[in-house]
Design goal:
Layout lengths: L1 H5 L3 E5 L3 H12 L3 E5 L7 H6 L5 E4 L3 H5 L7 H10 L2 H10 L4 E3 L4 E4 L5 H14 L2 E3 L15 E4 L13 H9 L3 E7 L3 E2 L4 H7 L3 E9 L2 E9 L3 E3 L1 H6 L3 E6 L6 H9 L7 H8 L4 H9 L3 H4 L2 H9 L1 E5 L10 E6 L20 E3 L13 H23 L1
Parallel strand pairs: 1-2, 1-7, 2-6, 7-16
Antiparallel strand pairs: 3-5, 4-5, 8-15, 9-12, 10-11, 10-13, 11-12, 13-14
Helix pairs in contact: 2-7, 2-16, 9-13, 11-15
Bound molecules: flavin-adenine dinucleotide.
The site of flavin-adenine dinucleotide has 37 residues, from helix 2, helix 3 and helix 16.
Length: about 400
């Protein structure tokens, strides 16, 4: 029924990331005419970047656990969004395009072939066959004509990993009178002043099975040593300027570590004992060697306390250009959240937005892409409802 009502309607989608492509999918499947405009010469660039080191598309958490990871909208609103397009719906959609998915040891959903290029190509091909027009090199700006369309969806993304500052926040402020918060980095690496000798041994290598603690909280996982500092999920969750502590052996208590080290019969230095019985990886051993004083390295008790609580001065986050996502974007008070009109701009009926351009945030691990595609589907539902009734 909806199909016949919207078949004469024309919609514009600005932005060809996962949110825009999902909105286009839902609109064209309902029968609407869809044109996707993208400022770049090619489509879905950030999805390609996200997929360059393993395409993590979602997480196997239950919906309530899922929602607990999000900031921005209230839990009941996230819950409604996921009832419209759930993680299961997204996985089924990816599989319907011919891509096998699996859940990794971290409970994250991956595409089996671990990269985004084929998925993106298949998705765009499917949309083109369904009748969606794709227009590259076309930036939404203060002059863009919108009156030709019955409804418009903006899915313009956040501030991370961009070669230049996005123009759309200024256009939204000036043309639409919309409050847009400045972007700041999120899910980002932090800088640490490493001893150059440590870097020679450890750059590019992981600190495995550690617990990372700052005043913001604790997170277990793996960190990677980089020339400038650290990357990895624990620091994306709880990175903040100031002192952080690493537990290099979370499975054992301080007293059981001491007992194990004392049980070594040979007359070895504390570091050699640690190497012999504790199973720390080479990066952790290099950290203990290069970032301690010589007299501490001779003191077994001191070394044990460092293994459990190794202090690291975290200097500053890496810039927005290097961050996985961003905080900031369209103030959530600017969009409607009532059923049927979700994600419509209150000041501009018929215009919708979603994805990372809105001021919500989540940790990496599938939560970002999932929320983006979900909001693409939610906004598309709103656009269809608007064209039918509005
Ligand atoms: C290095 C990296 C790794 C990541 N890893 C993961 C991960 O493992 N798991 C996860 O869930 N997420 C990950 N992400 C995040 C994920 O890629 C984003 O959350 C997702 O792409 C956001 O989708 P979106 O459609 O809202 O925005 P985007 O994908 O950013 O798409 C927005 C599109 O709009 C276009 N655009 C911008 N301005 C205009 C304009 N004025 N006119 C026309 N077009 C415009 C942009 O060029 C872009 O193509 C990663 C991101 C990065 C950078």
């Amino acid at each position: 029924m909806l199909q016949s009502m919207v078949s004469a309607k024309k919609t514009a989608i600005f932005g060809s990331g996962p949110a825009g492509l999902m909105a286009a999918t839902r609109l064209v499947r309902a029968g609407a005419g869809v044109t996707v405009f993208e400022r770049r010469p090619s489509f879905g660039r950030k999805l390609l970047i996200a997929g360059s080191s393993g395409l993590n598309i979602s997480h196997e958490a239950s919906v309530p656990e899922f929602i607990a990871h999000y900031e921005g909208f209230s839990p009941p609103i996230w819950s409604r969004f996921f009832s419209i397009f759930s993680p299961k719906d997204w996985i089924a959609f990816v599989e319907s395009l011919g891509f096998e998915t699996f859940v990794g040891t971290s409970s994250r959903y991956f595409v089996r072939e671990m990269k985004a290029s084929n998925l993106l190509r298949a998705w765009i091909e499917m949309l083109k066959k369904a009748g969606v027009q794709f227009v590259p090199n076309t930036e939404f700006n203060s002059e863009t004509r919108l009156s030709d369309f019955d409804s418009v969806g903006f899915f313009l993304g956040g501030g991370s990993w961009e070669d230049r500052e996005p123009v759309w926040p200024a256009v939204f402020r000036e043309r639409f009178g919309i409050q847009v918060h400045p972007f700041s980095p999120s899910n980002v690496g932090y800088e640490v002043a490493w001893n150059p000798k440590f870097l020679q041994e450890a750059e590019g290598k992981p600190l495995k099975n550690i617990v990372f603690t700052t005043k913001s909280g604790s997170k277990a996982g793996e960190l990677v040593v980089t020339g400038y500092g650290l990357e990895g999920t624990p620091i994306y969750f709880h990175g903040t300027k100031g002192v952080a502590f690493l537990d290099l052996k979370p499975a054992l208590t301080q007293s059981s570590i001491l007992e194990k080290l004392k049980s070594v019969r040979e007359n070895l230095s504390p570091l050699r004992r640690i190497k012999k019985v504790l199973g720390l990886n080479e990066t952790a051993l290099a950290l203990l060697f290069h970032h301690t004083e010589a007299h501490d390295r001779e003191n077994l008790g001191k070394m044990v306390s460092l293994i459990k609580r190794f202090p690291l001065e975290i200097l500053r986050p890496r810039p927005l250009m290097e961050s996985i996502s961003s905080k900031g974007g369209v103030d959530l008070g600017e969009v409607r959240v009532d059923p049927g009109c979700e994600l419509m701009l209150k000041k501009h009926p018929g215009f919708f937005c979603g994805g990372e351009m809105l001021d919500w945030d989540a940790p990496t691990g599938g939560f970002l892409i999932q929320a983006s595609v979900t909001q693409g589907a939610v906004a598309a539902r709103g656009m269809l409802g608007w064209m039918e009734n509005g």
